[in-house]
Write a structure and sequence with these properties.
- The complex is a heterodimer of chains A (256) and B (330).
- Chain A has 256 residues and is of the alpha/beta class.
- Chain A has helices at 37-53, 68-76, 94-111, 132-139, 195-203, 243-252, and strands at 2-7, 9-12, 32-35, 56-63, 81-86, 117-121, 144-154, 159-166, 169-176, 179-183, 206-209, 218-224, 234-238.
- In chain A, the strands form two sheets. Chain A has a nine-stranded mixed sheet with strand order 9-8-7-10-6-1-4-5-11.
- The model of chain A has no long low-confidence stretch (mean pLDDT 93).
- Helix content of chain B is 29%, strand content 27%.
- In chain B, helix 3 (71-85) crosses helix 4 and helix 5 (225-235) packs parallel to helix 9.
- Chain B has 330 residues and is of the alpha/beta class.
- Chain B is built from nine helices and 17 strands.
- A nine-stranded mixed sheet of chain B has the order 9-8-7-10-6-1-4-5-11, sandwiched between helices. Chain B has a five-stranded parallel sheet with strand order 14-13-15-16-17. Chain B has a two-stranded antiparallel sheet with strand order 2-3.
- The longest helix of chain B is centred in the N-terminal third of the chain and has 17 residues, at 15-31.
- The chains are: A alpha/beta (256), B alpha/beta (330).
- At the A-B interface, helix 3, helix 4, strand 7, strand 8 and strand 9 of A face helix 3, helix 4, strand 7, strand 9 and strand 12 of B.
- Strand 12 (218-224) of chain A pairs antiparallel with strand 9 of chain B, so a sheet runs across the interface.
- Chain B: The electron transfer flavoprotein serves as a specific electron acceptor for other dehydrogenases. It transfers the electrons to the main respiratory chain via ETF-ubiquinone oxidoreductase (ETF dehydrogenase).
- Chain B: This is Electron transfer flavoprotein subunit alpha/FixB family protein.
- Chain B: Its cofactor is FAD.
- Chain B: Pfam families: ETF, ETF_alpha.
Chain lengths: 256, 330
C-alpha cells in the first residue's frame, strides 16, 4: 500500500484567539503551530496501514517553509517521506490549495507509482472549508467519502470499506482503489512520537515542489471573535455542601 | 432563480434544510428571482411542503444510482443541473451531507464554495455582483466576513443561526412546478457506494438528551465516570466527555462533546472537572443552562456557566446523587 496523507499547518489556539490589528488574520507571533485533530488521526492511520500492509507513506502539506515543522512531526509518527508544496505566507483559497496538491501528486506519481490511498482530514482545524480533499479527488478521478471513522482495506480485490457515523446511524461505503478518504477524529488514538522517530524525522530530507497558484472566488475581508453574552455564574456552593442547593435548582428546573 | 438543495427525512423536509430554504427565499426576494429547490426524492407532499417556503420550481433528480445517498453521484447530478438551469446560486444546509454534496458539485463545476455560513446578503442585485457573507471558522471559534464572487454562488448555511427564520414564509407560492431531471453518468469513474447501513441507537442520545452530564480531566480515571453514569440516569440524561477524556481512553470518541466531537444543545449541561477550552466550549455553548463543577473558580467554563459549584467532582457529584436519592425516597 502506498499512502499519501495531507496536513495543514494551523495555529495552536487556546482560549481566546489574538487577531492582527487590521483584523484580517490571526496574530500568530505568540502562538505555536500544529496540525488539526482530524489530520493527526489521518497521519496515525497512514502509519498503521503501512505497518500492517507494507509499502510506504508520504505526508504532504501546502504551506510556507515553516510548515516543514508539521511534516517532521508527522514523519516522527512513522511516515517515511515528506513533501512540501511551497506557497507564500498566508492562507490560500481551497481551490488553489487543491490545485497545488493535484499538481504535486501528478509530479510524484509520474516519478514513482500511484498512491493507493490518499487521506485528508474531513476539514481543517482553522478555516474549516471542508472541500479540499473532494476537489483533489475529483481532479484525479478518485472516489472520496468524508467523515470516516473506520477504514478496512482489501488489497486482494483492490477495494476499501469506509465507516461513517451519523446521528441517524452508521453507513458503510465500498470504494474501489485508488481512493481518497476524509478522516474524522475518533478513527484511532494518535501515538505520541517515539524518540527514535523524532531523531529520524529531524534528519529526514523534505522534498519541495513549487506550483502555480491562482486566487479563489471566496475573498476573506476580516476575522472577528463571535459575540458573547457576558455572564456571571450563580455560585451554588462549595464542595459536598453544594448538593442541597444544586438539587433545589434541579428540582426548580423540573429535572428531579 | 436561486436553488435550495433540500435534504429529506422519510419524505419530509429535514430540519437543517428549513434554514437553507429561508435563506434562499430572502436572497431571491432581494434579487427579484424565483425560488427553486432540488431534491433527490419525489416523495408525495414534498411539493406542497416546499410551496409553504415560497418555492415555485422543484427539480427532482431521478436515477437508480441516486436513489440511495451517493456523494459523487449526487454531486455530479447537481453539477449537471447547474449547467442546464444556470441558477444564480445554490444554498444547502451545512450538514455532513450538505457540505459534501456541494463540495462535489463545486469541484465538478469549477466554482468556489462558501461553507458553514451564518449570514448571507446581497449588496447589489446585478447577477455578477459578489455576495457578502459571514462564516464560522474552527467550529465557531472565529467569524469570517468574506465576499463570494462567482457566476453561480454555492453556499451552505448553519441552522439555528441568527438571521433567517426557519419557519415557512408568510406567503406560500401559488404552486410548485415539478421538473424531473435524469442525470447521465456515462463518463464518470466508479463511485463510492453504500453497502451497509445500521440505524442509530434509540433512546437518549448525546445529541438529543435534555440533560448531559460530562466529565473531563478532573475525573482522573475511566472508573470515575461511573458516578456520572449514575447521575445521568437519575436525571434521564446522557453522559459526555471532553477531548482529554477521549485521548486518555476513559471514554469512547462517540461521547466527546466539542469541535471534533458532538455539538449539543441540551436544557442543562453539567460540566464536571472540565476547564472549558475553546475546543470543548464550541460543542456545548448552545446549552440553555450550564452547571460547572470545578476546583478552579477561574477556569474558562466557570466564567461562562449559569451556575457554578466550586469543589472536587469526586466529593460534589456523589453528594448530589445521595441528595437526589434521599429526596426521592422521602
Amino acid at each position: 500500500m502506498d499512502v499519501l496523507v495531507c496536513v495543514k499547518r494551523v495555529p495552536a489556539t487556546g482560549g481566546t484567539i489574538p487577531l492582527t490589528p487590521d483584523g484580517t488574520d490571526v496574530d500568530t507571533r505568540n502562538l505555536g503551530f500544529t496540525i488539526g485533530p482530524h489530520e493527526e488521526c489521518a497521519v496515525e492511520e497512514a502509519a498503521q496501514i503501512v505497518e500492517h500492509h507494507g509499502g510506504s507513506a508520504t505526508v504532504l502539506t501546502v504551506g510556507p517553509p515553516q510548515a516543514d515543522e508539521q511534516l517532521r512531526y508527522a514523519m516522527s509518527m512513522g511516515i517515511q517521506h515528506g513533501v512540501r508544496v511551497g506557497t507564500q505566507e498566508g492562507e490560500t483559497a481551497p481551490e488553489a490549495t487543491a490545485a497545488a496538491i493535484v499538481q504535486a501528486v501528478r509530479t510524484l506519481e509520474s516519478e514513482h507509482r500511484r498512491f493507493d490511498l490518499m487521506l485528508f482530514g474531513t476539514e481543517s482545524a482553522d478555516a474549516g472549508n471542508a472541500q479540499v480533499g473532494i476537489r483533489v479527488a475529483h481532479s484525479l478521478a478518485r472516489p472520496i467519502v468524508g467523515g470516516i471513522k473506520g477504514i478496512e482495506l482489501h488489497p486482494e480485490d483492490a477495494t476499501a470499506r469506509l465507516r461513517r457515523e451519523l446521528p441517524e446511524g452508521i453507513e458503510v461505503y465500498e470504494v474501489p482503489l485508488p481512493a481518497a478518504v476524509g478522516v474524522r477524529e475518533g478513527i484511532n488514538l494518535p501515538r505520541y512520537p517515539p524518540v527514535t522517530g523524532r531523531l529520524r524525522a529531524k534528519r529526514a530530507q523534505i522534498r519541495t515542489i513549487e506550483p502555480e497558484l491562482e486566487p479563489g472566488g471566496l475573498r476573506r475581508l476580516r476575522l472577528r471573535p463571535p459575540p458573547e453574552a457576558a455572564q456571571d455564574p450563580v455560585v451554588l456552593g462549595h464542595g459536598a455542601e453544594a448538593a442541597k442547593p444544586v438539587v433545589d435548582k434541579l428540582t426548580e428546573l423540573g429535572m428531579v | 432563480m436561486l436553488l435550495t438543495l433540500v435534504e429529506t427525512t422519510d419524505g419530509s423536509i429535514a430540519a437543517g434544510s428549513g434554514a437553507a430554504l429561508a435563506h434562499t427565499r430572502e436572497l431571491a426576494e432581494a434579487l427579484g428571482a424565483a425560488v427553486g429547490a432540488v431534491a433527490f426524492t419525489s416523495a408525495p407532499g414534498l411539493g406542497e411542503d416546499l410551496a409553504a417556503y415560497g418555492v415555485s420550481q422543484l427539480y427532482v433528480i431521478e436515477h437508480a444510482e441516486c436513489a440511495e445517498y451517493a456523494p459523487e453521484r449526487w454531486g455530479e447530478a447537481l453539477a449537471q443541473l447547474l449547467r442546464d438551469s444556470q441558477p444564480g446560486g445554490v444554498i444547502a444546509a451545512a450538514t455532513d451531507r450538505g457540505n459534501e454534496v456541494m463540495a462535489h458539485a463545486a469541484a465538478r463545476s469549477g466554482l468556489p464554495l462558501a461553507t458553514n455560513c451564518l449570514t448571507v446578503s446581497i449588496g447589489d442585485s446585478a447577477a455578477s455582483a459578489p455576495w457578502s457573507l459571514t462564516r464560522q471558522r474552527g467550529g465557531g471559534v472565529l467569524l469570517e466576513d468574506a465576499e463570494l464572487t462567482a457566476p453561480i454562488k454555492l453556499v451552505t448555511v448553519l441552522s439555528g443561526a441568527a438571521g433567517a427564520a426557519e419557519q415557512p414564509a408568510a406567503e406560500a407560492s401559488s404552486g410548485v412546478e415539478v421538473h424531473t431531471v435524469t442525470p447521465r453518468f456515462d463518463d464518470e469513474p466508479e463511485p463510492s457506494r453504500i453497502v451497509d447501513r445500521t440505524a442509530g441507537t434509540t433512546g437518549v442520545t448525546l445529541a438529543t438528551a435534555p440533560v448531559v452530564v460530562s466529565g473531563g480531566r478532573g475525573l482522573g480515571s475511566a472508573e470515575a465516570f461511573g458516578m456520572l453514569d449514575e447521575l445521568a440516569e437519575l436525571l434521564g440524561g446522557a453522559v459526555g466527555c471532553s477531548r482529554v477524556a477521549t485521548n486518555d481512553g476513559w471514554r469512547p470518541h462517540s461521547d466527546q462533546v466539542g469541535l471534533t466531537g458532538t455539538k449539543i444543545a441540551p436544557e442543562l449541561y453539567i460540566a464536571c472537572g472540565i476547564s472549558g477550552a475553546t475546543q470543548h466550549w464550541v460543542g456545548c455553548r448552545d446549552a440553555r443552562r450550564i452547571l460547572a463543577i470545578n476546583t478552579d473558580p477561574q477556569a474558562p467554563i466557570m466564567t461562562r456557566a449559569t451556575y457554578a459549584v466550586i469543589g472536587d467532582v469526586h466529593e460534589v457529584v456523589p453528594a448530589i446523587i445521595a441528595e437526589i436519592r434521599r429526596r426521592r425516597a422521602g
